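Hallway conversation turned thread

IA: we were arguing at lunch whether anyone had actually written out AB hydrolase-1 domain-containing protein end to end. Turns out nobody had. So, for the record, here is the sequence (569 residues) and right after it the structure tokens. Reply here if something looks off.
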Amino acid sequence: MKSTSLFSAVLLGATVASSAILSRDSGPSFSPKEPEDPIILLSKDESFHFELLFTLGNTMFGAGDVNDVLAAAKDVKAGNFTSWLETFHALAQSTKKQAEDADNAYDPLNVREAWFAASSYYRQADFYNHANWTDPRINGFWLEQRAAFDKALATLPVPGVRIQIPTDNSTIEAIWYTSAADGVKRPTLIIGNGYDASQEDSYHSFVVPALARGWNVMTYEGPGQPTVRRNDDIGFIPDWEKVLTPLIDELMNLKGCFVDEDRLVLVGVSMGGYLAARAAAFEPRIKALILNGGVWDVYEGYASQLTPDMKELLAAGKQEEFDEAALPLLDSPQVPTTMRWGLGHGLWCFKQHSPYLWLESLKQYTLDNVVEKINVPVLVVDSEFEGFFAGQPELVKDALGDNATYKFFNRTAGYHVQVGAGQEWNRYQFAWLNKTLGIHHLLPEKTGSLSLPIEWKESQQFPYLSAVVKETFRLHPPRGFLLERFVPDGGLQLPDGSFHPSIFGDDLESLDPERWLQRFDESEDDFNTRRSRMISASLTFGDGPRTCIGKNLSLLEIYKNISTLLLKY
């Protein structure tokens, strides 16, 4: 779920009774209230602000252009669902037209970027449009976003693969990603969202950063989630292990040769924090668990914030009166956006026509009597501006005991699921994974049979070490020999600080060993070409007949000594 408040109609009784427009401080929301918002607001409507921030934050991972989103923020009328739909649909259509331009096809990266952006905009056009189940655009927009996404998916260096997994009542939808189809077993993330986000959204938020770090990723959707809800006409189920277990079965059956079984990680995002925790309690193949955020009791998250009158109706089992109070909110422009959307989407994704029955069904969504079955390391994430499940991450952390690592994000990273702070989130997430799973300790596993001191041939097994050495040479070149320079008559004066970015890039003054490694979105041929150009421009030891006579001895000492120090200490 991208939005913290699944059903912000927790104040619906008061709203109906008073016929008043709720103020910003009247209920849970995404926008921070104390202290002040740490960033500029993208809309006067707090729900629209959050959704715009969600898309804007993902532009850095290929979900569109910054100015497209800012233009949409300028054009959308605050709180107007029709305006939102029309603005993003027009943006999706124009981006699709760019993707279909024949000239665009000359560059596969152009194709990928345009189709990913179009897909993202179609999903946003759909977001607030689930109150009327018969609206043909619910399925129409989704078919458009999927078609666009699949065209982009096919252009990845290792194309993503859609996988359908039949179960008793539905078909799980999944997508497999890997950074290199070379048969090497890599650590693998299984990523599931919650209340509203799709697995296509996960590509930008999670997959791109994971592939860049050499991970495999399997995204998925189960009952109640966008594609499965549409295809199989089924709402959410509480026993999420019925989704995860067949998913892992199929993963190991189809892609087991790529998966490091000792480093298989499950990630639950938003309400997916409950779903993932529940499933992990019954799935021993999961080796680590990330809950962003931690959700202890979905029902309590709603019921605790109901007005006394509404709690009384709920406790008394007065379904008809409760529903009569709630359902008019769907069409009332006086009701806050998050409330109208939360109610409409909640009924749709749980496949319930009655708000009362929907809330009653949520009593099954609790970690009570389940959490003690979780016996793996767990990262429990909390956020400063978490509105709906505030306080629940700490409950999850306390129940997990020593298995839990609790991380509290605040200020600009303090929005629900770190929306708009994707880099900070991913840095922390992967640092925790590396430490927890011993990925930074893979070196001893691979060097158990190495000599001490290490031999030259053995020292050449570590690409990152080689990248660090080359990058150090590049940043600290020696004073070289003088070469003839041919300039026009009268000479040529270069301004101080002049450089040409075509070889090392614009960040040539930064230490970045990874510039010497293959990027996840780069073909083998492109990498070899780029690497050869960098090597040709590196004259640390001279070149050709003027190569330093001590080059090989120097390299021998560097690689052997650094490798031995790393191995020993």
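OS: looked through it. The chain has a mean pLDDT of 87.
IA: good, adding that to the notes. The longest helix spans residues 81-100.
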